[in-house]
Amino acid sequence: MDLGIAGKWALVCGASKGLGLGCAQALVREGVNVLIVARGVDVLEATAAKLIADKDRPAGAAVQFVAADITTADGRAAVFAQRKDFDIVVTNAGGPPPGDFRNWDREAWIKAVDANMLTPIELIKATVDGMAARGFGRIVNITSSSVRAPIDILGLSNGARSGLTGFVAGVARTKLAAQGVTINNLLPGAFDTDRLRGTMQGAATKTGQPIDAVMDARRNTIPAKRFGTPEEFGAMCAFLCSMQAAYLTGQNVLLDGGAYPGTY
């Protein structure tokens, strides 16, 4: 299927690896020009080279990168200094650490809200008017399945990402919807990423179990009996950015292998 977005420009955050990379790769393969952002310059440069070398990348699809912390004002300024206007924005920042809410002070909460609520809002604010003026725009916020089914030890993430979800529910239904701009959230469940493996390693260390046993136990809680892949996550992201998804806005798309037990 031709998604109709070849030649568009996309900003993809947290794109050096994991789900962000999956999104960048899927967009590049659709002929989208991408500017990828992450903090580590060496890994980011290697990722850009990988995307450029991808045999499925159309020859005209450009790949640029900026090494910056997108959760800071300086980081965002560095991105927009390189390119001001984007047709597609994929917001993504690493989730805050797990723990007991009794141990989180104000600084921990502010850091979580800055990264996982206010940063996406700042990126939306900086780009949607240009999108509306051109008559096309797609914003996809990578959030978490914990927005739908909160996880007790991820209270910082539950709170910050739920705040973003509420904001998007309102702004997506403004006049932007009639100007060709859609804003949706993509909610990952358990995907085979470094973050998941780090969490599983922590659980293995805490319980004294081998990590393979912890990973297998986690897989068995998922009806699909496997973890998702960044590639299939990226494919869903690319669809949300497509011309075919023009009538879809203000939605929370849950991609979790059936783990969420609810009807709605």
Quick recap of the structure?
By secondary structure, the protein is an alpha/beta fold. It has helices at 18-29, 41-53, 73-82, 106-134, 155-171, 194-207, 211-219, 230-240, and strands at 9-13, 33-38, 63-67, 88-91, 137-142, 181-188, 252-255.
Assign an overall shape: globular
Rg, rounded, reads 18 Å
Head-to-tail CA distance between termini: 29 Å
For the largest sheet, list the strands in their spatial order: 3-2-1-4-5-6-7
SSE class:
alpha/beta
Element string (H = helix, E = strand) = EHEHEHEHEHEHHHE
Biggest sheet features? 7 strands, parallel
Overall mean confidence score, pLDDT = 95
Uncertain segments are: none
Beta-strand content? 5-15%
Share of helix among residues?
Answer: 40-55%
Secondary structure: number of strands? 7
Enumerate how many helices there are, as a single number. 8
Pfam families: adh_short_C2 (PF13561)
Family: Belongs to the short-chain dehydrogenases/reductases (SDR) family.
Protein name: 3-oxoacyl-ACP reductase
Organism: Polaromonas eurypsychrophila
Give structural notes:
The chain has 264 residues and is an alpha/beta fold. It has eight helices and seven strands; from the N terminus they run βαβαβαβαβαβαααβ. The chain has helices at residues 18-29, 41-53, 73-82, 106-134, 155-171, 194-207, 211-219, 230-240, and strands spanning 9-13, 33-38, 63-67, 88-91, 137-142, 181-188, 252-255. A seven-stranded parallel beta sheet has the order 3-2-1-4-5-6-7, sandwiched between helices. α2 links the parallel β2 and β3 (63-67). α1 crosses α8 (230-240) and α6 (194-207) crosses α7. The longest helix is centred in the middle third of the chain and has 29 residues, at 106-134. The two termini are 29 Å apart. Belongs to the short-chain dehydrogenases/reductases (SDR) family. InterPro entries: NAD(P)-bd_dom_sf, SDR, SDR_fam. This is 3-oxoacyl-ACP reductase.
